[in-house]
Task: structure prediction
Amino acid sequence: MRRNHPLPRGVLHRLTHQSQVLAGNPLGDPTERELHVWTPPGWEAGEQLPLIVDLTGYWGCGLGHTNWRPYGENVPERLDRLAHEGMPRAVVAFPDCFTKLYGNQYLNSAGSGRYADYLREEIVPTVEAKFNCGGAGRRGVFGKSSGGYGAAYHGLNYSDFWSAIAINSGDMGFDALYIPTLYEDLEALRKHDYSIEKYIRHVESQPKLKDKDRMVLMDLGQCAFYDPDPTQFRNMRLPIDPHTGELIAERWNNWLKHDPVVMFDTLGENLRKLKLIYMDCGNHDQFRIHYGMRRFSRKLTAAGISHTYEEYEDDHSDVDYRMDIFIPALAKALS
Result:
């Protein structure tokens, strides 16, 4: 069932990709994964369209964005509608970057694997070769939440590869985002002798995952992305003393080095190369991400780097409708 049957329909291609980059990854995650690619209605390989890559938020992967939705649109259906409404034509890829940490931040980490390289060295070249799309100056990336973090991270670090980014409620402003929840994480760990391994094994043994545990697992996963310790269970160690609640300076500084607001101070000039920097966020995001987004935008403004930042009346949840704004903007910038 589709929300709007009469619309011209693009094609969702379901590929299988065998990764070399992820071989031997520290979590033992699979190297063979599905890769979904949407081409617009009437697509022909001779068009040489731009390529846009979708990075999902934590607890998600590309396959979730292409799955049928009982109410509303999945992303391919949304793209069909946007194309019908006049969005410039583009190819859109939906990679699977899920991990045993229950999500991804789309960077290279000794705690998770080389996912930045996976995207740039394997996924994008595979899609470009098969669908005759993208190429220098015609690659864009977007994402929400952790996916928004990925878009910001890739823009800061790989502006010679990507040409446009869209950040929807992207993880940044780590002090506002993570410090309050770290204390909640300690309370969850308390019942398990403050052991991450005991806690996770307990949660994974239960028949039902509670929303609160979902949030704790997400925070713990960040430990392996930002400050991995290969001697610990799934490479995770907390940046906070479990008994006193004090931040451990060395550990926390390793997290901050990955905060886009902090990274901007050394890498911000790279963003000047991009054709489009689009950012938006709900004005009462429950994870307090709007504070980090405002800081990032302020630094862009101070540096004289062209960008768009919009806040809207909403929080962090169920804001896919914002794609109606930034996906066409990406397609236009890259066309």
The chain has two domains: 11-171+264-334, 175-256. The chain has eleven helices and ten strands. Residues 11-171+264-334 form a domain with the Rossmann fold fold (CATH 3.40.50.1820).
